[in-house]
């Protein structure tokens, strides 16, 4: 992007001053180098979001921002329902509540290396991944509705985990005010055979080594030390969330006009929070969040089963589970006054700071874990939320590296086999049903995740705690 | 006038699908082939089963998204891949047929599943005597 389009607030904060229909400024948090690398579409989309009714404070883009649809991926915006604020299906995205959870193992990376191939093969066989894969949990209508209102709590109640898992999951594992009745039969049918599946694209399951600690106090609170082995799971609400996104995008694109909302881009399809379509979407979207939480919980159970067989001394308590694509009602202080806002995070992570009541009690003194996904060969990061992020980004941070290269270009640049062999040479075992999928997801197709988290840290959105490196990666 | 064809166009995270034809209906058929090519090589999909699809939308662009989303739904719920399409357009409506077979991971080596067709870069238009139908699909 052209850096002269911005007013530089600091080395890591770039303002787009309000012009035209913008109701608030746009703000991008990133280093100058990252801003220069971003597609110009990020600028346009940040500007467009700033023009939506009822937006509060600013339209934000995180350091990993890239061209999304409607909102940029890495976009954050909060809306006040009492000022005509809107909820946007495009502002949440198709993969509702796609997110990452990280599990301890109680083992070291050396323990893993002793059985690395067996562990990789067993995870690959027992974790359903890739196009058309189906899970072993099939839900009838009644159970589907129970899952959509119960989330991870529903899964734990049926034996797929423990109550302690819920203590370490956003919303305590169960998104309130979910409405299963607002989810179409088509969306439910699409999910029928997909519970406990990883999906494809950038979704993965990784066994990782804690390589570096940056913040000893937070790392100790999170239970992380160098050489530890952890498991990270990145996936979302599968077909159900995709179908909810598809259906409400159309409903809102058609309804926006009837509410007098001029859309600069159809993907910004939205409706007033206090409107029949807005409320219907919120109920369905929250059910989608529960689907993602239940899905990651079932996958956790499957991973524990694999470890019980391959490394029976392992114990896999949950460190934390974060969601990326959500709209959540939160209280934030704006101009010195607390306000109840609908915060959209599209490819962005909630990052509550120390003392926030929604951070699990054992972690509250240090803040919420912020889990940043990597891309097979590159590292992942654990960060911690800061108090400053409350004022800067409604307590939000980045969610991953963000793509630097299109799938098309990646496929032409690498061959899947070559990527797998090269990573095996570095001690990273990849298992995937699709070599083309591996080529499209090659580590080189992503931005430097280290530069992204450094920018998030320097901008005060979240602070670096630990870096993780993959040992085994199951790609969908 | 050139023959009907499809192509992909780049998007930072996802994939653009574009169908080009001598008629709007042909461009819709080719856009569907471009979408299959995001997942697998279309010529490797046998036409063993036919699925009928009907869509209605207030304009051509929403109709294209509906058509592609209907195919995504059928692929997801029936476990199918499609390699051949036929479309008839009427005022605000589409009647289509997709021919395909069950996805076979070993044979089709599907690269990625598609979450939905989006309104990004969405266009249905006549240019230089050809129809184009395109959008970004979220993968």
UniProtKB/TrEMBL annotation, chain A:
GO molecular function, one term: RNA ligase (GTP) activity
Binding-site residues, Mn(2+) 1: 95, 203
Keyword Manganese appears in the UniProt entry: yes
Listed GO biological process terms: RNA processing; RNA repair
Matches recorded under Pfam families: RtcB
Segments of skewed composition (Basic and acidic residues): 169-179
EC assignment: 6.5.1.-
Catalytic function, reaction form: a 3'-end 2',3'-cyclophospho-ribonucleotide-RNA + a 5'-end dephospho-ribonucleoside-RNA + GTP + H2O = a ribonucleotidyl-ribonucleotide-RNA + GMP + diphosphate + H(+); a 3'-end 3'-phospho-ribonucleotide-RNA + a 5'-end dephospho-ribonucleoside-RNA + GTP = a ribonucleotidyl-ribonucleotide-RNA + GMP + diphosphate
Cofactor section: Mn(2+)
Active-site residues, record numbering mapped to chain: 399
Keywords associated with the record: GTP-binding, Ligase, Manganese, Metal-binding, Nucleotide-binding, RNA repair
Description of how the protein assembles with itself and partners: Monomer.
Family affiliation: Belongs to the RtcB family.
Protein name in UniProt: tRNA-splicing ligase RtcB
Automatic annotation (TrEMBL), chain B:
Domain annotation Archease: ranges: 6-139
Taxonomy of the source species: Bacteria, Pseudomonadati, Pseudomonadota, Gammaproteobacteria, Acidiferrobacterales
GO terms for biological process, alphabetical: tRNA processing
Family from the record: Belongs to the archease family.
Pfam families recorded: Archease (PF01951)
Cross-referenced InterPro entries: Archease, Archease_dom, Archease_dom_sf
Keyword Calcium listed: yes
Keyword tags: Calcium, Metal-binding, tRNA processing
Keyword tRNA processing: yes
Annotated GO MF terms: metal ion binding
Name of the protein in question: Archease domain-containing protein
């Amino acid at each position: 992007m052209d850096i002269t389009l911005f007013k530089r607030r600091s080395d890591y904060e770039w303002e787009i001053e309000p012009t035209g229909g913008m109701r608030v400024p746009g703000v991008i948090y990133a280093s100058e180098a990252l801003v220069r690398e971003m597609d110009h579409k990020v600028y346009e989309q940040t500007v467009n979001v700033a023009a939506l009714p009822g937006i509060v404070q600013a339209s934000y883009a995180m350091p990993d921002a890239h061209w999304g649809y409607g909102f940029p991926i890495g976009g954050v915006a909060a809306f006040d329902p009492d000022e005509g604020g809107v909820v946007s299906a495009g502002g949440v995205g198709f993969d509702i509540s796609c997110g990452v959870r990280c599990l301890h193992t109680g083992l070291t990376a050396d323990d893993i290396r002793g059985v690395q191939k067996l562990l990789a093969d067993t995870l690959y066989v027992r974790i359903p991944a890739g196009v058309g894969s189906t899970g072993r949990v099939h839900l009838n209508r009644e159970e589907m509705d129970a899952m959509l209102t119960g989330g991870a709590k529903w899964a734990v109640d049926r034996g797929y985990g423990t109550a302690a898992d819920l203590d370490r999951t956003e919303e305590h594992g169960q998104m309130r005010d979910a409405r299963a009745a607002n989810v179409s039969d088509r969306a439910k049918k699409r999910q029928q055979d997909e519970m406990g599946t990883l999906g494809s694209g950038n979704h993965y399951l990784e066994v990782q080594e804690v390589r570096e600690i940056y913040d000893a106090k937070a790392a100790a609170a999170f239970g992380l030390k160098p050489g530890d082995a952890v498991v990270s799971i990145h996936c979302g609400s599968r077909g159900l969330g995709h179908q909810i996104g598809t259906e409400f995008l159309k409903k809102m694109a058609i309804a926006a006009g009837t509410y007098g909302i001029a859309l600069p881009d159809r993907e910004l399809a939205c409706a007033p929070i206090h409107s029949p379509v807005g409320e219907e979407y919120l109920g369905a979207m929250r059910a989608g969040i529960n689907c993602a939480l239940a899905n990651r919980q079932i996958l956790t159970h499957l991973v524990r089963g694999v470890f019980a067989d391959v490394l029976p001394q392992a114990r896999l308590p949950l460190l934390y589970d974060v969601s990326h694509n959500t709209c959540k009602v939160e209280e934030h202080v704006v101009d010195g006054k607390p306000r109840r806002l609908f915060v959209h995070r599209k490819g962005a992570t909630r990052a509550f700071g120390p003392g926030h009541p929604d951070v699990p009690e054992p972690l509250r003194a240090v803040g919420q874990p912020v889990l940043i996904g990597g891309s097979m060969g590159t590292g992942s990061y654990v960060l911690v939320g800061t108090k400053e992020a409350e004022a800067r980004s409604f307590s939000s941070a980045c969610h991953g590296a963000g793509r630097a290269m299109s799938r098309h270009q990646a496929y032409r640049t690498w061959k899947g086999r070559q990527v797998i062999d090269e990573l095996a040479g570095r001690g990273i075992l990849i298992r995937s049903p699709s070599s083309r999928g591996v080529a499209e997801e090659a580590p080189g197709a992503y931005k430097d995740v280290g530069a992204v988290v450094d920018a998030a840290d320097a901008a005060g959105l979240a602070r670096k705690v630990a870096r993780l490196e993959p040992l085994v990666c199951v790609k969908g | 006038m050139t023959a009907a064809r499809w192509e992909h166009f780049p998007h930072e995270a996802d994939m653009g699908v574009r169908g080009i034809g001598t008629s709007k209906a042909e461009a819709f058929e080719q856009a569907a082939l471009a979408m299959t090519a995001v997942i697998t090589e279309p010529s490797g999909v046998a036409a063993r089963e036919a699925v009928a699809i009907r869509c209605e939308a207030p304009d051509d662009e929403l109709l294209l998204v509906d058509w592609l989303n209907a195919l995504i739904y059928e692929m997801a719920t029936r476990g199918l891949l499609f390699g051949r399409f036929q479309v008839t357009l009427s005022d605000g409506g589409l009647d289509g047929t997709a021919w395909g077979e069950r996805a076979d991971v070993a044979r089709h080596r599907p690269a990625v599943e598609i979450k939905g067709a989006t309104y990004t870069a969405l266009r249905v238009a006549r240019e230089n005597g050809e129809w184009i139908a395109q959008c970004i699909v979220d993968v």
